[in-house]
Structures are given as structure tokens and as C-alpha cells.
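As promised in the previous annual report, we have extended the structural survey to additional targets. Below is the entry for 1-acyl-sn-glycerol-3-phosphate acyltransferase.
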Amino acid sequence: MAISVTTCPDLCARQGTTKRHEVAAFAVWVRLAALVSRVLIGAMVIFALLALARVIPVTRRLVSTYMRHLYKTLLKTCRVKVAVDGPRTTFAAPGTPVLVVANHVSWLDVIVLGSLQSVTMISKAEVEHWPLIGAIAAKLGTIFLDRTSYDDVARTRVVAGHALRGGALVATFPEGTTTCGRGLGDFRSAMFQAAADTGTPVRPVALSFLDRDAKLTTAASFIGDMSLWDSIRSVLGQREMTVRVSIRPLIMPTQVRPIGSRKALRQAAVDSIGEALAPYVDPYAEHRRPSTCQARPIVVPERDDLVAELELPSTLIG
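The corresponding C-alpha cell record, generated without further manual editing, is:
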């Protein structure tokens, strides 16, 4: 049986958007040339390091280090800055298994998360067929998911659980698709089951794309029938853009009620991410949203309902 996966229409990226501060077309092409060259050079380095890793185990760590460097370089080329809220700049201590869940706005989301810490991504199956990028993602151990298949969702949940048991840091976008960023789509609970099955904490992460005036912008949104090229051109056309990353408190499966419930874990993550997004999303009142909008308005629960910070040593997290 197929699962319906609906993204926001292109209209949502244009309606209610804050000022885009677009640069001249020539500057866009210059930035595109720089971006393509960095991707090609990066791909050659990655494939070379992965080939060496077959005979020199230590090279695998170099791949992770280089990937973070490459992601930061790509963001700089796109004129995208990353601003991390709070005292944490990573999702977990090295070697600590955590399920990272974030709201999904753009193809930039994966690059932003990867620039902060090496993670095993769960990505939509289509990415595997993207030229060059798909091959790199596969080599790096990305878990590909067919979002329209119940059977593949179940398989991916099991694979993610094995990765978490092995101490991996697994990242996923529970909305299953992108939104314009002016709210949250429906979070699917399947991947939260992997955390519940393994007793692994969940790390909610909120991503907000802001323009040069620190106002929410949809310039980075990759939604509807928009092509990847259209989205890249929109990003490269901004004078500057900032991704605000709010790394939220950990949520343990034993903290929610019912204990270990994947739906309770999902709701706790939605509440936590919603609280972080609210200061930027609030100005987009519900009555201004087009009828086709898939991103639900943010509803922040009472403070007492939010999960408090809980950081455990890696030896206590299974």
C-alpha cells in the first residue's frame, strides 16, 4: 500500500516571503561556477579517501573530517551562515548514539547538519539517483528511504535501529518532505520507533532560514514542483542568508508517557521544535496562509509540558 506524501506547493515559497535581497544574475552564475567546482573537487577527494580507507582504517576518520570541511565550504560558497543557539554546537558526545530529528525546509538542511557533526542521514530514495551527489551519499552510508512504501519504511526503521545500536548518530526529517518553513508539517512516527526499540535518546533540532534583516525567509525552500536548479538559483541569489540552528534538549524514551511510545516521542519532539521556531513563525498568522499550505501553524505548549534537558554519559545510553 502506498503512503501519500504531499509537499507545499511552489506558491507557498512566494506568498508572504520576506525581502529576498537578490544579487545580479552575473553574481549568481559566478557563485554557481564556484559551487560546481567545489563539489567536483570534493567528490574526487572523497572517492580517493574512501579507496584508501579499504587498506588504511584510519582514513575513514579523515573522510568524516573532510566531509565537515566540505560542507562548511559549500555553505560559505552559497553565502549561507550557520548560527547555533545555546551552549551546544554538536548533537551528542562522540560515540553516543542519538536520533537527530529536524524540520525540513531545503536541500541545504543536510549540509547544515553535516557541517556541525558527522551523521548517518536517512534520505529520500530519489537522492540516490541524483548525479554525483547520489553516488557520494551512497558511499558515505546514507540510508535511503522510499517514503511512499510502508514496507520500505519498516525496513528503514530496522536499519536505523541497527545503526543506533552500533553507536551511530542517525539524522532524519520526520515530516517526510519539505515545507516553506512557516510552520511544521505532520511528523511521521516510524523512525521514532527505532529510538524506542533501542532506548536511544532523541535530539530535536529546529532550522530557521533568515534573511539579512533576521526575518524568516522562504528563499531556501525546496518545495512543490520546484526543480533543484530553481532552488539553487534562489539560494545563490541572496546577498546573504543565515540558518538558525536550535539544538534542543534530549528526549529519552523513558521520559514520555506512555513510556517508550513512538507517538509520545514524536509529540515531544514537535513541541520542542515548535517552541524554537515560534519567535520567527508567529508573524505569519494563520489567516494569511494560502489554502494549500501544508505547514501547520506553530502551537507551543505550556512550559511545564516541555521535556527538560537530560544529558547522559554514553555508557548509560543503549
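The domain at 11-22+80-284 is CATH 3.40.1130 (Glycerol-3-phosphate (1)-acyltransferase). Residues 304-318 have pLDDT under 50 and may be disordered. These points will be discussed at the next consortium meeting with the crystallography subgroup.
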